[in-house]
Amino acid sequence: MEFKIQIKQTKQDHIYIVDDEKKLSSLAVLTKEELAFIKTSFAVEQTIVSINKLSYFIFIYLFKNKKTDAQTHDACRKAGAELSGICNKYKLTEITIANLSANTHAAVLVAEGMALANYQFLKYRTEAKKITNTLKLIYFTKTSATVKEVAQLNIVIDAIYRARTLVNEPLNYLSAEQLSKEIVLLGKDAGFKVTVFNKARIQKEKMGGLLAVNLGSIQPPTFSIMEYLPKKALNKKPIVLVGKGVVYDTGGLSLKPTANSMDRMKSDMSGAALVSCAMYAIAKLQLPLHIIALVPATDNRPGQEAYVPGDVITMLSGKTVEVLNTDAEGRMLLADALQWAKRYKPELVMDFATLTGAASAAVGEDGIVCMGTADDQVKKAFRESGFRQYERLVEYPLWDEYGDQIKSDIADIKNVGGPSGGAITAGKFLEHFIDYPWMHFDIAGVSFATAKKGYIPVGGTAYGMRMLLDFLMHYGKA
User: Catalytic one among 23, 181, 256, 453?
Assistant: First the structure.
């Protein structure tokens, strides 16, 4: 999908955004009969009306304010998703959006929703040409979007598409090694540095958590380090992103017991896709921030010399972990990455991971469970970004009592707690490996969709990336 500002106004397919019926009279392209039809449609709560002019289409979207700005903006995105479907139904290849409403952001939000809904993953479909969406280009009239907004939208949508595609790729293509190659390509395209550790280097560094999870696989692990360092960075100490890169999760010897629970486990590297493609956007947007991203990657299988419940693993930090469930593997490799982040003396560290079914069960498909030690100002900024992008956050506590659940009789800690509070005890486990301001985002419930919902397609969603980029674009601003 591509976005441009229209240079010359022509009679072509248009979307007009209005917030008042009276503004329709300013549209010379509409006849009296068409105006009457549109008004009648609005009267029965229809917010999108299609007019077939035979040689081109006109779509009218009636913009309505909701209870909050966040809800209003998301309604625009959802209207965009509906309009995307209509455009593809009529085999349109391009469309122009004209914003006649009082909301200056309406056109960009509608276009964003159109683009998010327009994504497809057809690499393995033999009939791909027949079912490919026709819509490729969205124009804005000169008064409907700024050059900066259009440039930013092009970059963010591109990054989201790339992240979704990585999540949708199956393990027989996207091994840990292939993921690292994809990250290298992202760095070359966007202009950030990438260093990849192979298994020998990971063994040399004694990343015990990552190596333990990899024991059951015939494929080697990787550890990818990305760095974007602009000449005039606002932050003296780097911001570090960490993404869980379990390219496929069987649960290991603690094989996943729930029916169909492995069907979507290729998406267990959604955190890795999110932070890697966020780095792509960060570099393309030329954000004035020094940012490092870390991706520990492997698959988790019950073969070879797979680690077993009861094993004690020595982590990169030197801490010992009693493994009671090999399906609690994400925290094992994240712990090594969080420990590695200490060497950068970071200003802030954020990890993104499909970490627990508990988080998914708690908030479902409409929010991200988060927790952390960052100060209240940072947490407030995250909440605001979450609402702006409608990728909302639910903060959980990190009370000491939850830490009691992961005390071990034979090691420093164990990798699972009790039957309740699973999302929090996972966070408490990770907390053992930090000594800096930190936020943990559990995206288990939102990373992969089994059904289309508004502008969220089936498959990888990249949910959380727009929130993260929004946070970074506002970073350090009052």
Answer: 256
Per the annotation, the verdict on 301 as an active-site residue is no
Q: Dihedral through CA 302, CA 296, CA 476, CA 145, nearest 10? A: -80
Domain co-membership, 173 together with 130: no
Active site residue 256: yes
**Average of per-residue pLDDT across 465-474:** 98
**What is the pLDDT at residue 11?**
73
The residue from 331, 414, 428, 466 that is catalytic is: 331
pLDDT given at position 434: 98
- The yes-or-no verdict on residue 447 having pLDDT over 70 is yes
Residues forming a β-bridge with 98: 16
Backbone angles phi, psi at 196, to 5 degrees: -120, 125
379: closest CA among 359, 400, 395?
395
Average pLDDT, stretch 212-216? 98
CA angle 392, 246, 291 (to 5 degrees): 60
| Segments forming the whole domain that contains residue 74 | 9-141
The CATH number assigned to the domain holding 13 equals 3.40.220.10
Q: 440 in helix, strand or coil?
A: strand
**Taking the model in full, what pTM does it have?**
0.97
Q: What is the pLDDT of residue 478?
A: 58
